[in-house]
Amino acid sequence: MSASIDVALVGYGYWGPNLARNLHQLATCRLAAVCDLDSARLAEVERFYPATRTTDYREILSDSTISAVVIATPVPTHYTLTSEALLAGKHVLVEKPLAMSSTEARGLIEVAAHQNRILMVGHTFEYNPAVRKIKELLTTGKIGELYYIYCTRVNLGRVQSQLNALWSIAPHDISILLHLLETLPVEVSARGATYLNSAVEDVVFVDLVFPDNVTAHVHASWLDPSKVRKMTIVGSQKMIIYDDVASEGKVKVYDKGVYRKGDEVYGEFQYKLHSGDIHIPRIDMTEPLRNECAHFVQCIQEGTRPLTDGENGLRVVQVLEAAQKSLRNRGVPVEVAS
Amino acid sequence: MSASIDVALVGYGYWGPNLARNLHQLATCRLAAVCDLDSARLAEVERFYPATRTTDYREILSDSTISAVVIATPVPTHYTLTSEALLAGKHVLVEKPLAMSSTEARGLIEVAAHQNRILMVGHTFEYNPAVRKIKELLTTGKIGELYYIYCTRVNLGRVQSQLNALWSIAPHDISILLHLLETLPVEVSARGATYLNSAVEDVVFVDLVFPDNVTAHVHASWLDPSKVRKMTIVGSQKMIIYDDVASEGKVKVYDKGVYRKGDEVYGEFQYKLHSGDIHIPRIDMTEPLRNECAHFVQCIQEGTRPLTDGENGLRVVQVLEAAQKSLRNRGVPVEVAS
Amino acid sequence: MSASIDVALVGYGYWGPNLARNLHQLATCRLAAVCDLDSARLAEVERFYPATRTTDYREILSDSTISAVVIATPVPTHYTLTSEALLAGKHVLVEKPLAMSSTEARGLIEVAAHQNRILMVGHTFEYNPAVRKIKELLTTGKIGELYYIYCTRVNLGRVQSQLNALWSIAPHDISILLHLLETLPVEVSARGATYLNSAVEDVVFVDLVFPDNVTAHVHASWLDPSKVRKMTIVGSQKMIIYDDVASEGKVKVYDKGVYRKGDEVYGEFQYKLHSGDIHIPRIDMTEPLRNECAHFVQCIQEGTRPLTDGENGLRVVQVLEAAQKSLRNRGVPVEVAS
Amino acid sequence: MSASIDVALVGYGYWGPNLARNLHQLATCRLAAVCDLDSARLAEVERFYPATRTTDYREILSDSTISAVVIATPVPTHYTLTSEALLAGKHVLVEKPLAMSSTEARGLIEVAAHQNRILMVGHTFEYNPAVRKIKELLTTGKIGELYYIYCTRVNLGRVQSQLNALWSIAPHDISILLHLLETLPVEVSARGATYLNSAVEDVVFVDLVFPDNVTAHVHASWLDPSKVRKMTIVGSQKMIIYDDVASEGKVKVYDKGVYRKGDEVYGEFQYKLHSGDIHIPRIDMTEPLRNECAHFVQCIQEGTRPLTDGENGLRVVQVLEAAQKSLRNRGVPVEVAS
Description:
Four copies of one chain form a homotetramer.
Chain A: E1 5-10, H1 16-25, E2 29-35, H2 39-48, E3 52-54, H3 57-62, E4 66-71, H4 78-87, E5 91-95, H5 102-115, E6 119-122, H6 129-139, E7 146-156, H7 165-168, H8 170-181, E8 187-193, E9 203-209, E10 215-221, E11 223-235, E12 239-243, E13 251-263, E14 268-280, H9 288-302, H10 310-328, E15 334-335
Parallel strand pairs in A: 1-2, 1-4, 2-3, 4-5, 5-6, 7-10
Antiparallel strand pairs in A: 7-11, 8-9, 8-15, 9-10, 11-12, 12-13, 13-14
Helix pairs in contact in A: 1-9, 4-5, 5-10, 8-10
């Protein structure tokens, strides 16, 4: 077994405490330091963890015992903080989305390659056992021809004043979609609405067209009475509902489908429905973030490429960019450059 | 009390049996005749009802004892059958949507006016006690400023070979939206996808922009593992979920909202969330179709205008037309002519 | 195919209309007559069905064209009405419970045997496709060793002023239990409470001990905020939840269980749990009462013994009698005579 | 504000880690030491908390800096460990049930009184905000006359090899019932069944009769496919469902009830049902165990009596004793000595 490595966490705001807890509990690394600009946040760190605390990022960068940095700061700072860490020779796990533009994302990939350091993006859902189970079901072709996927990710809060719902919520769904479909969309449309702040969409609807007529739809909002994290996958033979907040049956596989019977020439079709059993596979209960953190450490120790590497992060940013462009044009479709 | 009137039902296919049952059970009218082109369907009528049966529509039109006709035939036939009935001096209740175009719809309104007969469209949800309760909540201003509404109406089947999901499923939601908001949308976008038949969208997403920045979103599909009929209404003070297939709590009123606190000039905002009690008002259990049929008969007897009159039906068709145009243009927004 | 037979329905109160509808719609019989003491109820019959109507039971009995009688009157009248019908040479389907005592029940069995007529009891749940599926799962041994079953059947209303919750609600569960287990219980205990009427238990809890240490528990009440009709079956290998009011997944089969590992002599055990997939078999959607009515007619036509024959009805009454005795003795266990 | 006090945790098995986390996070005390016989468990403590660790209970007792002990060891050890701690001058919070018999419980109360130390029992649900809300609803009389309460607390696991389901699961429900009703039951019956181990009931049903014809029913089991923690409270005017595992709506208040109308003399009653709105009050999200630990520390600091003091713990044990006696006699009712 490899020696445990020392990791620093940068940003102890909304998501940081979850990273701290997991990094602390992992046997393969040590939460050596936490950096945050707010010393009140650091005081909370002190109560829970024996890590060094600092408000000065340079202290982290110059500490040669720290081999990896985990960045959970506001998205606009990702590019600068990540490139500085890479340049200081650290491996980096940065929260999603990787950056504010594909130009930035490409820049980070280059720096990481040049520095020969690992760059990983925190697309947690790709480490989620439920998503893995769905990926397995799609890969083995059990659902027949894939038709379409739609996702709803809504909640009351966390309202953001800089990032809209597209950039702050939809990256989860886009990451899952790209992971499941293993290809970029051809074209993206997006529409949204602003209520609390005229510059920031609280609600966004995104349509994605993938090759082979597969389509997807994403609804992201922080103005909703319920917490919904749901994805429906419609195939010709089977259909899947993935409900991430269900207490029983996060993934349900429906033996349901429709096929067309008849004469194509004369246009006389009949549609036959079948509706059979429902199967709920057992899903491993490991915390996805635990898997993600463990994977980061393992990639460092073994010198392997992370599942959610820089290119993975770039692809999500490319989709976000195209969607943002469509959003500004009231839904006019935008091609995704590949 | 007015004398009972004799009503004929035209079309005993998918929806006709529900109309027959309600017309038969209403004390204010008599199901006098049923017309269908398929004599096997008429044989079923014979088993259940003492009504006259015919495959010849002209027999219905020429029967002077019949004062009203209820039309539940395929939508492309609505225009011809409805105008013939009006011209024959019958009052008409026709299933939704009223017609295949606004030109047709306007034509029917004119004929009805000229013939001084009642023209009513079967937008059942406007007779649904749950929708009435929501209308009441919106009217009394209890939800604060209305932000947005989104609707999901999906199921496995009934797959249609001529009408797409926009024209066959979404009219329900559009009718409810226009009823609740009491205005036409300014602009409509729609995107869809075809899987079973390249000429007919199985799945459609519609975005509607109403005056005062109120927006709405409709998802209609007949390719889905679950039967969902759900509408979420987001206001600044309260939020409502209307789940038409819930066994308990079809309408839930959430005392939830977000408001912005801070200095507009310096752009330093804070968002305050409140999340209080949930209230589930008792909803009257009357069958909406029963209310609708009774309303039709009452309007005839009292000479009053139906809630869902020809103009009401026309407005829904106008929205469908605009959405259809956008659908053909991959989501480019289309203005709704008023 | 046998000729259609003429059936008379006796009692058009709470449950009678459901029987009327099914008898009317069955192709193998004709709802020839309806008898009720209340002429207002008969007026409703007239609106829906072309059957003869009478308030005089003797008219039914003396009508030689009527070969079978379906009795849905208050339970205390079952014995008299059923024996009169059998003596008049009619086949009889009588609602559950068969009679108010095992003595009465045995009397009816004897009369039916002597008259060579079919006596069937309306234990509808034995004709329920969900119960049939569960029976199949138990018979094939898939759940391992059967441990215990518990049932909840509660609702608000129908409050009865003569029969307590044991006699009016619990017969459903007892019938299902005897059907699934294919044996009488050895011993029964029951406790209850009276709130609305000091002579009639609104709430009853029944414990049943079957051979081989299989136990069952029934909770019946008409004072409850929710409509619950639920049965949980616990086996050593699998467990089943049957929720009759669930819209999706009435029967859920859980691959869950506990086994004991270790040394019996030294009492050092470990308990190993397994918790795997959940399977929801498709359940046929036929109305149970339709199946029941069709079965009655078929038994008459083919001269076969009904699934829920007089002996079946007697066994349920024997359990009710024992439970009633325990109820009067505050839960002291009572043996079930076999 | 009082000075923070040093607390030792004894027992770091199943429940201990939850206590450790809460004691660690409370600002009013310090988790100074943890004692467990298993040094592997202590190694886990070391990873998470800066507390002293020991396998020797006497070290805790003789440490004068420790003023309070929290005991989360197997129930049969409660009496000895608690009395030793009290005799050593420590305040004690001991997990439920307080002891294995009312004699033991009374002994502990006496020692605590003599030593002038606080004795508190960990009946967590009395610190649960949902239970507090229900208590408030009952106290203000909003539900009318209280009829009956039934509770289901089942799960797969944790199978116990010494304590049956009555002693290990039902104390929660009994504690809640006594808290809500503010009186001991008059009489208790219990029935159970053993499957995994012939000496230990896996499943128990308890009936409790309280003064004024209020009754309660408890179902406790560790052999179940689902995790259920549910309590239904039936009143004459309103009914409450408390579902502790519901994600939305843990407490639902139903405006439902039945009243009797009519002439008592002639026994001609009619039962009128009303079924109105449902109200879901917002429930504070504080962790009950956090409230409990904070209350313990506060009682020490302020010298006040805990809500769940020794007498409270004794009453629960008295009910358990009576139920155990009935259980051994197959459900024969047993009076509760007061």
